[in-house]
Amino acid sequence: MTGAAFLSLGFWLLMTGDFTPDNILIGAAGAAAAARLPKHRVSLRRYLLMGVKVLAMIPSAYGQALKMMILPHRRETTEWEPGDMDPWTSFEQIFIITLTPRTLVIDTDQHGKGRVRVHSLKRKVGT
C-alpha cells in the first residue's frame, strides 16, 4: 500500500470509529481501489485558497443556520447556475454551495456547459 492508501484507510477508520477486523478489511479494500483511480494533481496554492474560502464561508453558514431556526423559509427554488468544466473548480463550487445550509447542489450538467442545479430555500420572493 502507498502513503495515500494508508491515509485513506486512516480516514476511513476515523470516520467509522470501528476498528474491528471486518471494518479494517473493508477500509483497506476501498483504500486500495481508490489508490488505483486516475490522479488529478492540484497545487498546494489551490488547496490553500480553497481552505481560505471555506473558512470565510463558515460564519455565513452559521448565520444562515440561525436565520433558518428563527425565521421560517417556506419558499423553495431550483435553478441552474453557471459552472466550470475544470474538475477542481467544479468540485470547489459544489463544495462551497453545499456548505451553506440554505443551498444544495442536486445535479450537474456534464454534457453541456458544466452548469450546476442548485436547490435553495428562501423566505420570500426576491431574497
Q: Name the assembly state.
A: single chain
Radius of gyration: 19 Å
* Strand segment tally: 3
Q: Write down the overall mean pLDDT.
A: 82
Structural class: alpha+beta
Total helical segments = 4
Characterize the largest beta sheet: strand count, sense, and whether it forms a barrel. Answer: 3 strands, antiparallel
Order of helices and strands: HHHEHEE
Query: Stretches where pLDDT falls below 50 for ≥5 residues?
Result: none
Distance between the termini: 51 Å
Explain what this protein looks like in three dimensions.
- This protein is an alpha+beta fold and 127 residues long.
- The protein folds into 2 domains: 3-35, no CATH class; 44-122, no CATH class.
- The chain has 4 helices and 3 strands; from the N terminus they run H-H-H-E-H-E-E.
- It has helices spanning 3-16, 21-35, 44-70, 87-99, and strands spanning 75-81, 103-108, 116-122.
- It has a 3-stranded antiparallel β-sheet with strand order 1-3-2, covered by helices on one side.
- Helix 1 (3-16) packs across helix 2 (21-35).
- The N and C termini lie far apart (51 Å).
- The model has no long low-confidence stretch (mean pLDDT 82).
What are the defining features of this structure?
127 residues; alpha+beta; 2 domains; 3 strands
In short:
The protein is an alpha+beta fold and 127 residues long. The chain contains 4 helices and 3 strands. The protein has a 3-stranded antiparallel beta sheet, covered by helices on one side.
